[in-house]
Amino acid sequence: MSNFAEIVDQQQMKEHLQNALRTGKVSHAYIISGEKGSGKKFIAGIFSKTLQCENRQEKEGQIEPCDECHACIQANHADHPDIITVTHEKTGSVGVDDIRTQIRDSVLIKPYTGQYKIYIIPDGEKMTPAAQNALLKTLEEPPAYAVIIILTENMEAFLPTITSRCVVLPMKPAGDDSVRNLLMEKMRIVDYKADLCVAFARGNVGKALELAQNETFD
Q: What are phi and psi of 141, to 5 degrees?
């Protein structure tokens, strides 16, 4: 049931994605970069769901998914046929076969139900040079309906030919006040504990939420 209103700060990124939704000028490829726990996958999921939503709504100046249509329900249950998360068998790398079988060989098949066919690549920095070159062929001549979202903790891991063909959206550290308010409202924790979590998280929302639930840290 997540939506843009739940994204903590990241104003520049939200403005870019909202503009794409309003104008319909959606890029064929994005790279969302940021440290572990910063919310990359969360944002990619919200953007993907909103792209596929059959009844987008304007709420408090933002375009939001309706969370009621069939596409939203599928997205919320992680089983929308046109939102594909790329997996890899080797823990340390995303290989050329992973990209070929899950993206390159299927991207020419039109979306089953949605307007877009969206591929989310977690751990993008683990793509081998061969895998990146295999992906490059799709980035150079993508079908109009294809959207590829690469998530990464390390921008330096990519070939220049990859980054030059993607819109790069860096995660920014969330403000301490924003993170504190989230912890106190969502987690219902007291102010002094929220302050401690905020101090250790240093703008990383995921880390702050993890610390707030960590009995050892408590």
A: -135, 65
Which neighbouring-strand residues pair with 84? 119
Regions of the chain short of the pLDDT cut 70: 1
Q: Can you point out the beta strands (E) in the chain?
A: 29-33, 57-59, 62-64, 83-85, 117-121, 146-152, 167-170
Angle between helices 11-23 and 40-52 (to 10 degrees): 20
Q: Which of 94, 166, 88 is nearest to 128 (CA)?
A: 94
Kindly report the pTM of this predicted structure: 0.93
State which amino acid sits at residue 20: A
CB-side neighbour CA atoms (13 Å) of 5? 11
Largest CA distance in the chain: 54
Task: Name 120's bridge partners.
Answer: 85, 149
- SS3 state of residue 170: strand
Tokens read off for 6: 């739940």
Report pLDDT digits (tens) over 118-174: 999 999 999 999 999 999 999 999 999 999 999 999 999 999 999 999 999 999 999
